[in-house]
Specification:
Blueprint lengths: L1 H25 L3 H25 L5 H22 L8 H32 L5 H26 L3 H21 L1 H17 L10 H6 L1
């Protein structure tokens, strides 16, 4: 639940400040910013499609670690380069877009893993309530993210520092819980196979999250 808040909070923070930074430093207009958002959306769609293909070979815990690591690397990269941006410097455009690209790739991976794993760790009796609370927390991240980004966009160390700290704390929590979560995955998979619910080539996390 904590991780899903941080994922949506951090991602929407990035998306909020893209026009501000690109217009102030690089002179981008509506068309250029639209292309950035379109490229980010296309990248996310490709990531979802890739997960649907390789998901049967990768566990949800692994997906969460990979996605979280990508987002953390992207934010550490941006907190290093963003305070030193100069207006009109084309090299800095590449630096900025590289960080945004990595964030757009990591978010879908971590989100799919989190959704599928949440459905596994919740019991049948608490499935509806748990998923409802999870959705509420995700929407809270979507609300507070732009508020935080808008108020701290001129203070990149504060803006990105808080996001990095929250991602790092959740990364530590995930690593501490790693063995327990993997055991839950193994137990559910074994039970499903015994009951002939799943074939030997386990369904993808994306499909499991939908069902």
């Amino acid at each position: 639940m904590s991780l899903v808040f941080v994922l949506f909070f951090s991602q929407i923070c990035f998306e909020t400040v893209i026009p501000v930074i690109t217009q102030d430093y690089f002179g981008f207009g509506i068309n250029e910013n639209t292309m950035i958002y379109m490229a980010g959306g296309l990248e996310a769609l490709i990531a979802f499609a890739g997960i649907a293909v390789i998901g049967k070979y990768v566990r949800e815990t692994t997906l969460q670690i990979v996605g979280l690591s990508m987002m953390l690397i992207a934010q550490v990269w941006l907190i290093v380069v963003l305070p030193h941006f100069e207006r009109g410097n084309t090299t800095h455009v590449i630096y900025f877009l590289g960080g945004i690209c990595l964030s757009y790739l990591g978010m879908p991976i971590a989100s799919v893993g989190n959704t599928a794993l949440s459905s596994k760790v919740l019991s049948n009796e608490t499935q509806g309530l748990g998923q409802g609370v999870r959705r509420l927390i995700a929407y809270s991240g979507l609300i507070f993210g732009p508020l935080w980004a808008g108020s701290t966009v001129e203070m990149p160390y504060v803006f990105l520092g808080v996001c990095i700290a929250m991602l790092a704390v959740n990364g530590i929590m995930l690593m501490v819980s790693y063995r327990t979560l993997r055991k839950v995955e193994d137990d559910i998979l074994e039970t499903s196979r015994k009951n002939n619910v799943l074939p030997d080539d386990e369904a993808t996390p994306l499909l499991r999250s939908i069902t």
